[in-house]
């Protein structure tokens, strides 16, 4: 066993003395672009496995995972149980929700995927139903900083710097992009002026685990105030999976009906949020692949660009954004 794994088992047995004599196999779980490390502890006895998450303080949202877990559990959302938490060693021991995520059903027939996506949307509705006005100041302080015009502008700048300039090699400050910049300004102002609720922030298929026919949430440490449609866009325009236009429309309609909302109102804001989310994703894929030594993220850029082009065609106010990336791949 690696020395690192032996140390983790020592920490674990300090938290769970009843397991001091129980043999354990440590399995490394590779997960996305996170700076956290995940391990599956498989006990060689009639003890259920558990997940050990070891995080760093490099990201300000990492320490928010445990408080976010308790908040989501309180409203009935499906999240893993926290077995133990060592704040000094930056370790959290969690219920093992299994290995099957929503993305793994990508090649299944739509008839199989549909109920899983519906279950996922029902989970989202639980925290989307928590509006900003229902939260006290102490509650809001536990969350990550909410979406406001400054955060939307930061995401747009991330897209411009890493994707438009860094990946496509275009000087986005040139006059030819003036109309597109005005579209960005109008977009962030419009979104920032809308009421906010709790949002996951990274609500994509890899962050939804499937147990039976139910959806369970992970990687929600970025929980904050924002627009529900931002989460919907993360899920329905997820570049990691394939959804047709009609399948997206079906799911958007289901969500609106489940929450008793007018589909037209949801759809209008959905496309605005989808443009915002996809720009953020493109900035991330470009930065991860070009600057952070993770070239495999480049493969997701064409799908994200195609999705962004579709979104711009669906909403008249977004047409000018295509100037930034048209003909660039």
Account of the 3D structure:
This protein has about 325 residues and is an alpha+beta fold. It has ten helices and nine strands. It has helices at about 5-15, 65-75, 110-130, 135-140, 150-165, 180-190, 230-235, 245-260, 265-290, 300-315, and strands spanning about 25-30, 35-45, 50-55, 80-85, 90-95, 195-200, 210, 215, 225. The strands form three sheets. It has a five-stranded antiparallel β-sheet with strand order 1-2-3-5-4, sandwiched between helices. The protein has a two-stranded antiparallel sheet with strand order 6-9. A hairpin with a 4-residue loop joins strand 4 (about 80-85) and strand 5. Helix 3 (about 110-130) runs parallel beside helix 8 (about 245-260), helix 5 (about 150-165) crosses helix 9 (about 265-290) and helix 9 runs antiparallel to helix 10 (about 300-315). It is globular and about 70 Å long. The N and C termini lie far apart (about 45 Å). The model has no long low-confidence stretch (mean pLDDT about 95).
Brief overview, please?
This protein is of the alpha+beta class.
What layout of secondary structure does this protein have?
Elements: H1 3-15, E1 24-29, E2 37-43, E3 50-54, H2 65-74, E4 82-86, E5 91-95, H3 110-128, H4 137-142, H5 149-167, H6 178-192, E6 197-199, E7 208-211, E8 214-217, E9 224-226, H7 228-236, H8 245-259, H9 263-291, H10 301-314
């Amino acid at each position: 066993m690696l020395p690192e794994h032996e140390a983790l088992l020592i920490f674990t047995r300090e938290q769970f003395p009843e397991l001091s004599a129980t043999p354990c196999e440590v399995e490394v779980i590779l997960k996305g672009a996170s700076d956290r490390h995940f391990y599956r502890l498989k006990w060689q006895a009639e003890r259920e496995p558990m997940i050990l998450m070891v995080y760093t303080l490099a990201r300000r949202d990492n320490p928010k995972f445990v408080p976010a877990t308790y908040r989501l559990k309180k409203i009935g959302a499906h999240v893993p149980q926290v077995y133990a938490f060592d704040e000094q060693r930056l370790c959290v021991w969690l219920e093992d929700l299994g290995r099957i995520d929503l993305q793994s059903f990508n090649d299944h027939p739509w008839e199989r995927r549909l109920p899983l996506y519906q279950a996922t949307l029902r989970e989202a509705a639980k925290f989307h139903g928590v509006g900003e006005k229902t939260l006290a100041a102490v509650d809001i302080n536990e969350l990550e900083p909410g979406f406001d015009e400054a955060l939307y502008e930061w995401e747009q700048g991330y897209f411009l710097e890493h994707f438009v300039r860094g990946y496509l090699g275009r000087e986005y400050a040139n006059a030819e992009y003036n109309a597109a910049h005005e579209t960005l300004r109008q977009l962030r102002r419009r979104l920032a002026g809308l009421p906010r609720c709790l949002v996951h922030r990274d609500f994509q298929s890899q962050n939804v685990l499937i147990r039976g026919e139910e959806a369970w949430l992970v990687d929600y440490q970025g929980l904050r105030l924002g627009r529900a449609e931002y989460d919907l866009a993360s899920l329905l325009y997820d570049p990691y999976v394939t959804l047709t236009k009609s399948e997206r429309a079906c799911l958007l309609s289901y969500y609106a009906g489940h929450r008793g909302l007018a589909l037209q109102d949801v759809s209008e804001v959905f496309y605005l949020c989808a443009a915002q989310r996809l720009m953020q994703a493109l900035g991330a894929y470009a930065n991860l692949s070009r600057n952070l030594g993770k070239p495999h993220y480049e493969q997701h850029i064409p799908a994200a660009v195609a999705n962004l082009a579709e979104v711009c065609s669906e909403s008249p106010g977004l047409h000018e954004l295509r100037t930034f990336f048209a003909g660039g791949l």
